[in-house]
Amino acid sequence: MSAALVRHPSFAAADSGRSQSPHAMILSVIGRLSQTLDEENDDIARRGPVDYPAYNLRKSQGLLELNRLAGALADKQVGPVLRAALADLHAKLETNRRLLRTQLQAAQAVSDIIARAIRDSQSDGTYSARSWLGEDE
Length: 137
Fold this sequence. Notes:
Blueprint: H1 9-12, H2 22-45, H3 52-70, H4 80-121, H5 129-133
């Protein structure tokens, strides 16, 4: 990604925290990821417009930061606070996955209906390949 990439303000704070401990930095990233997931999940649940590209960018940035910081904890013990934060993040990611899956399935169902309507409107069914294949509508 280019240096001109616009970053969400909540992720800019990570650049200034170089003197923090690895635990504190990871907890900060987890907090921002959790906030992003909460916001996206709320937007999806409200059934209004959702800025998927913006949420995808924020989640990708957070995952990149988390992956970079994970090496700093490779030889260290994960404490109960970090373990709880990771469990909470995991739960929010699972909720986000389910909501996104539902949205994708709904979009697929709508596109199937539209495709079928277009196909049906363009043919009177006389020469339909579906009749030769034995498919019933």
